[in-house]
Amino acid sequence: MLHKIKLTMTIIFSLGILMVAIVVTGLTLSSSNTTLRQQVSVLVSANSKQLELNIDSYIREVQQKAALLFSSEEYYGYDPLDTTLDDYKKLQREKAINEKIVDLGIMENFSDFGIIYSDESTIGWISQVTKAMFPKGGMYETFAKTIQNPQTSDGWSFGINGNYDRLYYTKRLNPHALVVASIYNRELESVFELPKALNDMTVRLVNADDQILYSSRQREVSTMLPEHIVSLLSGVESGSVMDSEYLVTKDSCQNGWHVICTISVESMTRENSIAAQKTILIVACICCVLILGGIFVYTVFNRSVSGIVTDLNDKASHDLMTGLLNKASFESFVTNEIAAVSETQVSSFIMLDLDNFKKVNDQLGHSVGDEVIIRMAKLLQNAFTENVLIGRMGGDEFAIYRNYPELSFEEANEMAHDEIHHLYNCFKREFEKERDICQISVSSGIYLMDKGKYHFEDVYKRADSALYEAKRSGKARPNYVS
User: Do the beta carbons of residue 212 and residue 225 sit within 8 Å?
Assistant: First the structure.
């Protein structure tokens, strides 16, 4: 009888432990799944915003190149139909325009970059592929219809005459001339880089009609955005939405396009589910013998989830290639730093860009190009070690925010010049081989701020404009503004 009572009590106790373990484990898994979903949602949203910033930057570069043709009436005022110009003058004007176009576009990955006139004549490089799209003429009229913004007289288009390989940008130069530039949509792969933690995420670039211009699933290009995603994003201009199957984010670009990122809930919690199955098996095996085993597994499991979340957060804030802050995190940290110390300390904001970097990829290979980016990041970290935030803004562009505690504006200005001079000397030594082969150099814009109230957008624009002026006036030089 006593044996039966002990056996019964043992069975009841074991079943009790098993039930408690199942309930506790189930609740823990549910909580962990919720936490992991929230953290992944933050990561996806941060990366989606970064991608939108990247594509905006890419679009802005194309538009700025086209806008430079307005720098002289010699370029924007020419009309081949002008009867006051003789053949010699026309030839001279067209030669000058062609040289300007070549100068503007030689370092870019344009498929087309030229001018189309109302008589169907062209200057610059309008590719044979584009010309072949109009065997019966009508090229000027077709591209003129793609101008959607009457204020800026420009517009982006896709799928012209069934061509789904290129994205076209058109800007009116004068009443009888259009600037046309195009890029292969596959070139956007470099813009839409993702951390490894989000390899299962699908990235799409769509226009206002929900037609897919670019997708990480190449076969989707030119098709319409899947109906379930359209339905999920109904009424959402910018933000994230999650249902039982998908997390979807939407960010709006400056030209009316949208970056749509989609990841399945199953993918988000896959690692958690695998860990859950192992945990339940272990708890089921040991809970009848030792309840502490269940507690131990529970603790290990929570640490595992915490490690995943910490890793995802770290990857969300840092550039994976260089370890520097990514663009979104750099902006956030610098914004906070400016708000905290700008009224009491002198500081500087520096934008740097590698000149002729494309030659490194073209002549030495992309692996060497990646190595150059990594070495440049290390060089910046070694050159600026105190009171500094360093970020990779995308591609071969970097930014630095530097404080000068307890220094006057004049002292900080002198130190900034010394630091930049030292940086350029280090650059020459570090990249001697690449300079000889590819003429690689570095241009920079340095904006020195006295004590006062500043905003990130303002100082970023000032430094970026200074960088642009340095590149425009010969490259391989710093340009200081204050």
Answer: yes
Give the other-Cβ count within 10 Å of 31's Cβ: 12
138 has a pLDDT exceeding 90: yes
Quote the CA–CA distance of 283 and 301 in Å, as a whole number: 11
Identify the CA nearest to 290 among candidates 14, 9, 6. 14
d(CA 345, CA 93): 53
Q: What is the pLDDT of residue 302?
A: 47
Residues 6+ apart with CB under 8 A from 410: none
On whether the CB atoms of residues 427 and 372 are closer than 8 A, the answer is no
459 Cα distance to chain centroid? 20
391 in Cβ contact with 371 (< 8 Å):
no
Retrieve residue 258's tokens. Answer: 């949208």
Tokens of 151: 């204020």
pLDDT tens digit sequence for 21-38: 677 666 665 666 567 667
Rounded to 5 degrees, φ, ψ at 277 are -60, -45
**Which of 81-85, 273-277, 285-289 is least confident?**
273-277
CA-CA distance, 384 to 419, in Å (whole number)? 8
